[in-house]
Write a structure and sequence with these properties.
The structure is a homodimer. Chain A contains 9 helices and no strands. The two termini of chain A are 28 Å apart. At the A-B interface, helix 4, helix 5, helix 6 and helix 7 of A face helix 4, helix 5, helix 6 and helix 7 of B.
């Protein structure tokens, strides 16, 4: 949904207890396992209140027609391209190249006017800072170009799916490295997602198995994204994740696995 | 620098103590105040090991010429446009529109082929998930288009600056709302950055002062970005932040204010 449609609690200013903030946390978030994996609802529920802002489409119109046309892609098209693209320019580029490159070839302009390599910066959670997983940055860029405002719903749903799914799923026909583990991230953050997998696999970040995991995960994220885009272009897509704002009592942009970072030390609402 | 140039520790697989991992943490990170504000070196030092990968530029070449041409912009051009653009489509769009819109007007194509509105998804740390501050997502998109591989250095340096600076700085000639606080985020994450400011100002997220803070901060980030792009196009830019990888013993993509989330419970290296 467009954020203009997002409505949230207005933040009363009173101090909320951890129990009020996260009524399920004590039950479901023990041991750093966030709500996402339990509720099956991803991390939706901690959003922006930007529906409160004076948003208009005012002078934000680009000279180029937008959203861009989309022809359906199959998982068998994007998975191997994303996997191989990771080994060229890493996670964000893997997702953008696996979706936008076939559209450059199948549709041409406006896709051919966009330098896909310009998205490489998303790797490692933004040039290695460990923030948003670069695959999800790639999803945001791609769905923003293809689906306009609806792209925010699709990104939100891919992020929900990412946080609750045991990944990686994709098995390349000719793997560069054998790996044995899958893990649920409970977070869209590179640092947390890859760190949990590394701990389960027992390998450091600078290892071939870790690279293989990220390459396969890139294929998974690309396949999930085109599956939702295909439903969307067929008129069959319904946003599933829901507004982050509507589900969080103070409307902070955040995740619901709060205790994983905060423990019991949840800051009170201003 | 391009990540192909980034080299890092290779992760020996042995268990590292918290002291080994973060030798300054006990001294400098007390009370959740990360290293960034103390060292003046941002959060650089926790990066990817992607220099280890078999990166090539192989089939990643776009049909469109890239990087895109750049004509210098002034802070007085981008600050008011970023500020006003936040109230249209929020933080990520505020930065991309304040830089790319003047370039559409001054240069035309290829900028006019890019729908700036497609970047709106970055708001609230990616559709409200509280991850990478949308202003910094905007910087990544813009510097990726304009500066190519050097854009990663510029993004890294803007992120360093963002984490150690008392923001917001910009004072609009006609503020929509009066605010009184500035805060140092010690993090590029929306959730942490805006949360610290909200706590200092004593306002909830769904408040006009919070929106004003984010609009002014967008102007600050846009101004910092064009300042570095102007130096870069003049051949005067030198990357300052340094590789995240070179400064972190296990090369995890992360920040250096580790105890702010982990406390003393720093996971050992696999």
């Amino acid at each position: 949904m467009d954020t203009q449609q997002r409505t949230g609690t207005d933040g009363t200013g009173r101090t909320l207890s951890r129990r009020e903030l996260f009524p399920l946390a004590g039950k479901f978030a023990v041991g750093g396992v966030g709500l996402a994996a339990v509720t099956g609802f991803g991390l939706a529920g901690c959003g922006t209140d930007e529906s409160q802002s004076t948003g208009t489409t005012g002078n934000g119109t680009s000279p180029s027609a937008w959203p861009w046309p989309y022809d359906k892609l199959s998982s068998s098209q994007v998975q191997p391209l994303a996997y191989e693209s990771w080994y060229e320019k890493f996670c964000c580029y893997a997702v953008t190249n696996s979706i936008l490159r076939p559209l450059q070839e199948n549709i041409g302009a406006p896709y051919t006017n966009f330098p896909i390599e310009s998205t490489k910066w998303g790797h490692g959670g933004a040039v290695g800072w460990g923030t948003l997983c670069g695959t999800l940055t790639g999803v945001g860029i791609v769905t923003g170009l293809i689906a306009g405002g609806d792209g925010e719903d699709i990104l939100n749903d891919v992020m929900n799916w990412y946080t609750v799914s045991a990944l990686p799923i994709y098995e390349p026909p000719e793997p560069k490295t054998a790996i044995s583990s899958v893990s649920v991230s409970d977070s869209p953050l590179c640092h947390i997602s890859v760190g949990k997998w590394m701990a389960k696999e027992g390998v450091p970040f600078a290892s071939d198995p870790r690279k293989e995991r990220c390459a396969r995960l890139s294929a998974d994220v690309a396949a999930k994204t085109v599956a939702l885009l295909n439903d969307w272009v067929d008129g069959k897509y319904t946003a599933g994740g829901g507004s982050q704002v509507k589900k969080h009592p103070v409307g902070m942009p955040t995740q619901n696995n709060c205790v994983e970072c905060h423990g019991d030390n949840i800051p009170s609402s201003p």
